[in-house]
Amino acid sequence: MKRNSRLSSALHILTHMAEADARSLTSQHLASFIHTNPVVVRRTIAGLREAGIVSSTRGPGGGWQLSRPPEEITLAEVSAALGESLLPFSTEPESPGCLVEEAVIAMLEEFRSEAERLLAEKLGRYTLADLATDYRKRFDRIGVTRHAV
Amino acid sequence: MKRNSRLSSALHILTHMAEADARSLTSQHLASFIHTNPVVVRRTIAGLREAGIVSSTRGPGGGWQLSRPPEEITLAEVSAALGESLLPFSTEPESPGCLVEEAVIAMLEEFRSEAERLLAEKLGRYTLADLATDYRKRFDRIGVTRHAV
DNA sequence: CCTATTCGTAACTAATTAAGTTACATGAAA
DNA sequence: TTTCATGTAACTTAATTAGTTACGAATAGG
Question: Which InterPro entries does the annotation name (chains A, B) (predicted)?
Answer without folding.
Answer: Tscrpt_reg_Rrf2, WH-like_DNA-bd_sf, WH_DNA-bd_sf
